[in-house]
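for the writeup, i need someone to sanity check this before i put it in the appendix. the sequnce is what the collaborator sent (i think, or maybe the updated version? ugh). structure was predicted straight from it, no edits. if anything looks off just tell me and ill rerun, i have time this weekend
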Amino acid sequence: MKLLIVDDSNIIRRALERSLQDFGFTEIHTAQNGRQAMDLFEIHQPDVVTMDITMPEMDGLTCVQLMTRQRTGVKILVVSALGDRHTAVEAVKQGADGFLLKPITAESVRTSLIELFEE
């Protein structure tokens, strides 16, 4: 399985990468904005994407919408500091499979991913 981590924060990208290295992914790629994420999505065809919402160049909700239109079956976990109900509902409407509120822990990320695969 392949993972794409999308977040404009280098700290968050590295934290996610570290916490998921031994989760069973064969490849892990990272992107710092939505445009870069779309390029990597097309090239690497990830099975799972973690997606921030507020980013430069293309926001995460637009990115989620484009990814799910391009390929069905990809699992997308939105990881965001925007914790209002409207944002979470909108993420799911756009095609996200789950929503995780920042700040994150390695355990919360792993639990959220396990829940995605149990659906």
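The domain at 2-118 is CATH 3.40.50.2300 (Rossmann fold). The longest strand covers residues 75-80.
thx in advance!!
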